[in-house]
Amino acid sequence: MAELQDQGGHDDKKGGPKQKKKSTRIDMTAMVDVAFLLLTFFILTTTMNSQKVMQLNVPPKPKDDITEDDVKVDVKESKMMTIILGKNDKVYYYFGITEPDLLRTDFSDNGIRSKVKKHLFKPGQERCKGKETEGCWDPIIVIKPMEQSSYRNLVDILDEMTITDAKKYALTKLNAADSTLLYDNNLL
Amino acid sequence: MPKVKPKRHTPSIDMTAMVDVAFLLLTFFILTANFRAEEKDAVVTPGSVSDTEVPKSQFMITSVEKDGKLFVGYGDQPTRELVFDMILNYLQEKDPSIRINDIGKKYFILQPSFGVPLDEFPIWLNLPVEQMKIYPQRGIHYPYTERGKKDNQLLTLVTFNQYAMAMQGIKKGYKFMIKGDGDAPVIAIQEVISSFQDVNINKFYLVTNLEEVPTGEPGAASAAE
């Protein structure tokens, strides 16, 4: 332990009444204790907070006088992959629009990510870059969450879009055809 | 002859350097720490690979709890003050006798977020401060809740926020954050988004916890940018 040491005062006998010399040593143990305690506290509290934000753009709401058919865009059916988020973390997906074949998967490693990747990266076909859409593979993914699915699933699937580098994806609501499809598969 | 005793010294260590380092680190951590304002909502956000920083000011945040309960917060005090005046005006249009005292107004301006339905404001903010703190925050009405179908208070608050932005001359850079609990139903979040879309806001920031990008995936590079 560091202590106040009385080293002066040995040559008292020789001279007159000299003032005692004291070394300026201070016991810093307590101060060190406090400093490290606070340090530990601040280190622990700062690393806990790792909240970030994720950007989400949604298409503007159509005006009242415009029906859904008016805003429909012509898209090749083969480009389309539709992902439906179900309850209890289930994921359903199908390709194209007419006569879709509903397939089931989940969020595990071999789940939706591999299916999305299979759709995005076709062997022998170059992905479209920038604005070009002719003569290259231009996949589109549509995400439709069911009402019973959780918000976590939505964030997870948007995350998968980032992870798999799916450039074109859209978030919309289920339409009548999807509801029928789900009903036919006893999933509603 | 008496034996020569070795002089005993108390073992002392010079701690000056250690103290210097400790305080340097301490100062660093104190200065870099952002104290998170006390929030009334208990929201466990889901994880994502996105690593964009949370905006520090100029934002409006809507938090959705597990059961769909809605909280709204504004990032800066001038906006909160303007919005408060508009809320009071809105309430007085319905009932001109409504008054909210200055203590209540000051208390409101200091709140990072609130979940008291607008019609309960006169009751909530005229209480003594100690009771304001423990007032039950039952959530703002929006179309996901039963009463919100007729009275979409979120839309009212978003509209007030738009007015407040215009009054302060803010045109760009204002951010709309949605902080949802992972277990909240998607439909609740969709109702929130839909209310924002009614005033033509189509760009959102979802608050998430940082997760690592799985290595070797195509998006790893773009997510890290």
Largest sheet of chain B: 5 strands, mixed
Largest interface: A-B, 56 and 67 residues
Order of helices and strands of chain A: HEEEEHEHEH
Secondary structure category of chain B: alpha/beta
**Overall pLDDT level of chain B:** 83
Quaternary structure type: heterodimer
Shape descriptor of chain A: elongated
Question: Uncertain regions of chain A: pLDDT < 50 for 5+ in a row?
Answer: 1-9
What descriptors fit this protein?
heterodimer, A: 188 residues, alpha/beta, five-stranded mixed sheet, 4 helices, 6 strands, disordered N terminus, B: 225 residues, 8 helices, 38% helix
Could you explain how this protein is built, in words?
Chain A is of the alpha/beta class and 188 residues long. Chain A is 27% helix and 16% strand. Chain A has a five-stranded mixed sheet, with helices on one face. Chain B is of the alpha/beta class. Chain B has helices at 16-32, 77-94, 102-109, 121-125, 129-133, 153-168, 186-197, 220-224; strands spanning 47-48, 52-53, 59-64, 70-74, 175-180, 203-210. In chain B, strands 1-6-5-3-4 form a five-stranded mixed sheet. The longest helix of chain B has 18 residues, at 77-94. Chain B starts with 15 loop residues before the first helix and ends with a helix. At the A-B interface, α1, β1, α2 and α3 of A face α1, β1, β2, β5 and α7 of B. β1 of chain A pairs antiparallel with β6 of chain B.
